[in-house]
């Protein structure tokens, strides 16, 4: 039984209400402590909405989430929407300086934060009077004002506002890079997110019978889409928040007989490298999806060999496109080896040369896309918005070519962004932190190819003359101020950085040197 089809522009909070009516007792989300049905999840959503409206939330107010994947995360996220607010999901691995910068930049009025988050006290010290901290915990902590607010919320009467946001209303802000200096917040409307979910539901053929074991953080665009697609379909989300024990992940997939699993290239490299998949009964696994960076064809080959009866979707996208832009139909995986596929339904992709003309097959150009899933722009930054949104088209900055059949193949990217695992990282941000270390004269950060993560971070540091500078000092400072995935794996001391005549650092020279 499928839920009644809704318009691709129907806001996801309205889709959620329809799913609750159709499947009230079906399992919605299972985390490490509990499982909730759709009816129970709606009650928690309604309590969050009632609390926020009671506290004076106005339509369009920003509400940030600094929460690990959980039932609480889903309840808060959809509760914000039900109240008419805008969600700002933040990276839980980040340090206080980044968190405060995002909160300030977005004008967040409420911050829902895990009570035991390591940066909680440091964040609380930085918050101004304009932002209210709510400490989310399943345990009563009556002496803590921030935790008391959560307990008040949980004990309140559930109440869902009757108003539904319009498709053009702002739904979410997702920060992608540049947190230290100039945050880049992608603004997605309710229509953007719903359109993308509709396209993904179509090609994955998701129904209420589907379930997924999810390891992707919901604060990422990829994980965000996994959350929304399953709640929109009436499916079930089973949350596993780390891959420290890969055997446990596969065992749970087998025991729960999930139909889906999503990961980035390093996820699958880890599972294939440490687990013999043939030892487990994965006959219930209908499909896999891969995004968050290019997957090496050799790795895709190993997946096919290990899971011959599972449909494997290689995908491509950007946060600016609400997540997804292209997918490779599983039946084309061998024939179109190395391809990222074709445009998702209701989205148009073109590869253009620098003059804006369509490229010929085999000719490299920039991927440009248009559709209802394309973002509204960057929060508070019309200049950056104008650089990538031109006449209704998103200019991705990624380089690719097509074959004679129109299938896309990535050739590289025109930006300096580093993709390590599922993370998109700004070199400038890391450089700014390293530059704070006493004795550093100059620094340049690049991504170096890595089999497991796609890229690892290498910092080239020019010490000040007559200065004793060691790697441990730099890494210690990075650990204090950067999320763990942003800390350089390698630090190389160098006499001078390669530069143009105007003094601009030539990163490509460093990258060429790193790959020799």
Helix/strand/pairing class, anyone?
alpha/beta
What is the overall shape?
A: globular
User: What gyration radius follows from the Cα positions, in whole Å?
Assistant: 23 Å
Measured distance between first and last alpha carbons: 57 Å
Adjacency order of strands in the biggest sheet:
2-1-10-9-11-12-13-14-15
How many individual helices? 15
Record field, number of beta strands: 26
Uncertain parts: none
Strand content: 25-35%
For the sheet with most strands, the description reads: 9 strands, mixed
What is the arithmetic mean of pLDDT? 91
User: Helical content, roughly?
Assistant: 25-40%
Can you describe what's shown?
With 516 residues, the protein is α/β, with parallel strands linked by helices. A hairpin with a 4-residue loop joins strand 1 (27-30) and strand 2 (35-37). Helix 1 packs parallel to helix 8 and helix 10 (265-274) crosses helix 11. The chain starts with 11 loop residues before the first helix and ends with a helix.
